[in-house]
Amino acid sequence: MTAPSLEIVNLSVAFGSDRARVQAVDNAGFRVAPGESFGIIGESGSGKSTILRAISGLNDEYDGSVLIDGRAAPRPRNKAFFKNVQMVFQDPYSSLHPRRMIRATLMEPLEIHRFDRRDERIAQALSDVGLAPEFAYRYPHQLSGGQRQRVAVARALLLEPRIMLLDEPTSALDVSVQAGVLNLLNTLRLSRGLTYVMVSHDLRVIAHMCSRIAVMTQGRIVEELSADDLRSQNAEQDYTRELITASRVALAAE
Questions:
Q1: This model's pTM is above 0.90
Q2: Sheet hosting strand 37-42, strand order edge to edge
């Protein structure tokens, strides 16, 4: 069996204390093989994005383990971690600094990690996500939502990571441009051998992007199923069947 690129073991995340304590993630666990695209679905507030924030180190106050290639991710996360693991956020409007030219935004990680040929790398990253080199000299407000998200993907690719965390990467985009970004992400994963962990409330998106899916509710993973099971509405848990039923129209269009 192939060793996992990413393994989550008994992950628990809580916020607040005493009576105000909220168990956002409760003893979650899963493995993701190299080159696999693994999805997490569930209702709003189920803990999906909290898992990604724990993996990425945006919240390192968790119990349990985040293992990259069998080794525990450091707390706090270090430069070596971020070279291997990058995250693309939900909202392309807030993930780019409004007063910084795209070139400056893309230059920053290259400077931090001391990469050479920086302008060449920026031009190549933009080309890889379907944007012309001149986009480096524009500001975020001059780009469409889909173009901004492509820039966010380009920024994540610059450090040549092996694992990408995708937090609802198309939910803030118009339906007309969602397919283009999703197809881009699929192409990049296959061409670069990337490993994805993708969170979405949209079962159609998850069924299109992921081979295996974890279903979450109230902070717990209650079931894992394949994309084929999701499309055929073949689930063991009542909650999963209810979630699929609620999204049946979207799945039928997949």
A1: yes
A2: 85-88, 163-167, 195-199, 37-42, 212-217, 220-226
